[in-house]
């Protein structure tokens, strides 16, 4: 069962190429901070602008650098079923522990189309599968009943990352799928309320920057220590907010660059932050003790 804090890790670049040395340092920092796993090449990993070979290469690096100390959920979804199957087979071949499957984007399939898409992927691999519902990017929500149908049809389905901003979905999913089905928050600011309703953790953007506090907050909530969890949530909520002041992963890569951990480099059409937003983010990082004033 996948539970706890999983970092949707950035893909660092240098001169247009994958920066494996920087990725190694990032993964080692995640391990030291006590996260439970990482998710390479998801939204935060700029998956839309990596080609097939780069996509599988980043997952392979993540597996190598994790060294079995934390789990690796390879982001291998696509709006093309055949592409998702290809990438998922690649993730399995290089040793990922599981796969994150985003809802197909842009083409807006029906719920039956979603069902058939995920079912075909599950039949092509032995990897456990975490669905990823993010209607704001995909234009379609994975319905609770579709998740229930998939869970009944394949033993591969292990959980879902909920990034629709609706806490009621947690209650609905828990009622439909039982206690063993993993529900991850897909939004750092909603991790605590989602866990209060029965979610098992978070696939986090903020834990790129503050892995230890996010892991502590999630462990506290899982143990029922909501006093500690609320304190950490309140302390870092400004960062949870400002890491989305522009399109993810622009702010989180800017933050990591300000902290000296990566080069600030993106794949087009993503571009650097506006000067105004950069100053806002810099001030928030300083207030959280992550940069000197």
| Percent helix range | 40-55%
CATH topology: TIM Barrel
- What ranges have pLDDT less than 50 throughout 5 or more consecutive residues? none
CATH homologous superfamily assignment = Aldolase class I
Structure classification: alpha/beta
- Can you name the CATH architecture? Alpha-Beta Barrel
Net shape? globular
What is the number of helical segments per DSSP (H or I, 4+ residues)? 12
Strand content: 5-15%
The first-to-last residue Cα distance is: 42 Å
The largest pleated sheet is described as: 8 strands, parallel, barrel
Overall tally of structural domains: 1
H/E series: EEEHEHEHEHEHHEHEHEHHHH
Mean pLDDT over the full residue set: 97
The order of strands across the largest sheet is 1-4-5-6-7-8-9-10
Rg calculated over all Cα atoms: 18 Å
CATH class annotation: Alpha Beta
């Amino acid at each position: 069962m996948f539970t706890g804090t999983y970092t949707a890790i950035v893909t660092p670049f240098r001169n247009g190429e994958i920066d494996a040395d920087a990725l190694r340092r990032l993964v080692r920092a995640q391990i030291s901070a006590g996260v439970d796993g990482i998710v390479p090449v998801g939204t935060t990993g700029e998956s839309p602008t990596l080609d097939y070979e780069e996509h599988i290469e980043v997952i392979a690096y993540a597996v190598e650098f994790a060294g079995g100390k934390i789990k690796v959920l390879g982001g291998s979804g696509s709006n093309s079923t055949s592409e998702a199957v290809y990438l998922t087979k690649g993730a399995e071949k290089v040793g990922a522990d599981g796969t994150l499957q985003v809802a197909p984007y842009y083409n807006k399939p029906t719920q039956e189309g979603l069902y058939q898409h995920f079912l075909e992927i599950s039949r092509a691999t032995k990897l456990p599968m975490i669905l990823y519902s993010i209607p704001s990017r995909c234009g379609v929500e994975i319905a609770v009943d579709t998740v229930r149908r998939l869970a009944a049809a394949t033993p591969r389905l292990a959980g879902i990352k909920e990034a629709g901003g609706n806490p009621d979905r947690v209650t609905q999913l828990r009622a439909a799928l039982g206690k063993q089905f993993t529900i991850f928050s897909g939004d750092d600011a909603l991790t605590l309320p989602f866990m209060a309703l029965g979610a098992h953790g978070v696939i986090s953007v903020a834990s790129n920057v503050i892995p230890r506090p996010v892991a502590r907050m999630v462990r506290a909530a899982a143990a029922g220590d909501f006093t500690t969890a609320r304190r950490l949530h309140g302390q870092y909520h400004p960062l949870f907010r400002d890491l989305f002041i522009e399109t993810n992963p622009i702010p989180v890569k800017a933050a990591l660059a300000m902290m000296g951990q990566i080069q600030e480099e993106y794949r087009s059409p993503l571009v650097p932050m506006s000067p105004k937003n950069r100053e806002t983010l810099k001030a928030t990082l300083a207030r959280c003790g992550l940069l000197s004033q």
